[in-house]
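This week, think about what follows.
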Amino acid sequence: MKTNFTKIGFACLVAGMAFSTASADKMGNIEFPGFTKRIEGRQPAKEVNARVLPQDPTVALKKAAQRPASRFIGWNAENPSLPNMMAKSAEAGEKMDSVVGVYLTGDLMSKQTFEFTENGSPLVCSNYVPAADGKYFQYSGHFAYEYDAEDRVISAEKVEVNSLSSCQRIEYGYTGDSRAYNLQIAYLMDEEGEWTPFQKGEYQLDINGNTTEELYSYWSDEVNDWVPVMKNVATYDEMSRLTSYFPYVWDANANDWVGDTEGYYGGQEFEYTQNGDDALNMDYEWIDGEWVPYFKAVFTYNDAALMIRKDRLYWNREKQDWSGAETWGPWGDMKYNQYETYDYDEYGRGTETNVFTSASGEYVNYYRATTAYSVLENGDTEKIEMSGSVKDDVYAPYAKNIQHINKFGSETYYISYRESDGEWIPQQEEFRYLDEYNWFLGGDYYNYFNGERKPSSKERFYYPDDFDPTLPYETPYEGRHWVGGGSEEDGGWRLKHVDNFTWGPRDVMIGYVNYDYIQSDGNKTTGWEMEYDFTANTANIFMWPDSNKGKPYYENKTIEAITYNNYQYWDGNDEWQPEYSYKFNYFYSPRTSTGINSVAVPEGVLETERYDLMSRPLTEPTTGINIVRYSDGSSRKVMVK
C-alpha cells in the first residue's frame, strides 16, 4: 500500500511545526499523534449546583503579560478539519501573504508565505530559513490542505525537507453531504519518499452528528492489513447529551474486543433531570468478559433545582444489589456506601453539608461543613466557612476560612485557619484592593509561621490621571510586584519586578517592558512592541485584563511585532541585545490575489514542463498544485482537481 509522493496531491512542509490536531492520545499501546479522540468519558457535571456568588473577576489580573510574538505564525495550532477558521484577515477583501522575521542585528531569522484558494480557504504555508551564508532565505518546507468540491478538507500534509521522520499526511473521508469526516488515514514517509499507511480512524455518527463509535487501527506489514487497536462506543439523548460510554481494546489472543478499564474512565451511563442537571452517573468494570456495575451516584434536587442529596452507592457482586460493603480494585480495598446532604438559605446559598457513611453497617454522620453569611458595615458580604469531623453527633471543626466579598462578587479579604488544641491558628491571609468600579488596584498576601505573619507577595497597579473607570477595559501604565524577605524599613517587602504597559487606540496594548529588581537594579529584561492597522478590526487583540484570545495575528491586521531581550541584566546591562531581539513584519494583498492561476493560457503558448511543489518533474497533471512552465517563458501554479 505504498503511494508515490509525486502523485499524492501536494505536500505540506513546515520546519519545526507540530502537525497533530491535538496532544498525543495514547490508544492501547499505539500512539495516535495525528488523531483527536471524539468520544470521551466524563465526570459529573456538578458536585453541588448551588447558586453561589460569582467568581472573582480580577483573577485575570494575576496573569503575567503574554509576549504576543512567536517564531512561526502559521497554521500549526489549527484543526486541519476546520481550515476556514484560518482564512479570515482583518479586512474581508485582504489576505496575509507573508511574515518575515529578522534579528535586530539585521540577520535573517525566518519567513513564511501563505496561499489561499479562490474562496479564501488556506492552501499552502511555505517556510524558509536562512541559508548557510545568512544572506538569503532558502526553502525549508511547507504545510498545505486539499479540498473536495464541497470545500471539505480531504487531506492535510506536512513534510520537512531534512526530516523524513516528521513527514506526515492525513486523509479525510466523508459520507454524503456531511461536514464531519468519518474516516482518517495517516501516512508516514519512508526513506524512498513514498507514503506508507500508518494509522486509521473510522467513525460512526448519529443523525445529530454525534460520534457513536470510533475505531482505531494500525497498519501491519506482517499481515499486510489493518490491525484493530481500540474502539469507543457511545449513546446520546435527544439533546445530544452523553448517555453511555464504553471503551474497548483489541485482544489479539482472544481475537475479540475486551473492555478497557486501564484508562481514566471505564464504562459509564448517565441520566439527566428536566433542568439538565445530573440525575444518575453509573460506572462499570470489565470482569470475566462483561461490563459489571461498579458504582453509581444518584442526585436529588429541590423545587429550586438545588441539589439536596447525593448518594454514592457501590455494587455488591455477591448479593447482586447496591448494598456496598464490597472489595473492589487492584488493592482489594473495601467500598462502603455514603450519602451527602446539602442545605441552603433563602438566597440559594449553601449553608451546610453533611456526609454519612455506612462503614459500620448503618449510616453515620462523620463530616460536616457549614457556611454563614453576614453583611459588613461597608456593604461587603462576610462568608465564614468551617469544616470538621462529627462523632456521636458532636461537631468538631478543624478548618475555617473567612472571605469578604463586595457587591460585584470580588473577594476583598481572605484568611484561613487550622484548629490546634482548641485555638484557631491562622495560615494564610490576603488583602485585595479595588476601586468603586471594581478595578483591581493590588493585593497583599501573607503566610503565617508559628502564629507570626510573614509577607509572601504584594502587587500594585497604577493608572493614568485621565483613566476613565467607566470604560470596559483597564489600562494601567505600570504594575509593581514584591515578595517577602525585605528589610523592616520596607515592611518586610522586597521589590521583585516592574511591568510597564503602553496602550494604543481602543485600549489595545501595543507595548510592554519588564524590569528586574531581584537580580539587578531595575534593568529591563524583556519587552515587545506591536504595530496594528487600527483602521481594521482589533476586537481580538490583547486587551487588559483579557489575554490574547488565540486568534491568528492576521485577523487583527498586525503590521509589525518586535520582541526585545536582555540576557545580561543581572550584570548591570540595561541595553537590549540585538542578536537575541527580533521583529516580524506582516504583508497583505487583496483577497482576489491567490497565487493560483485559473486564467486561460494565451493562444499559441504551449506547456513545456510540469513539476510538483518539491520541484520534481511530472509526466502528467497530478491532483493538487502543479507548477507549469510555458513556451513564452512564463510559469504559474495550477490547481488540478
Remarks:
- The chain has no helices and 39 strands.
- Residues 45 and 388 are 26 Å apart (CA to CA).
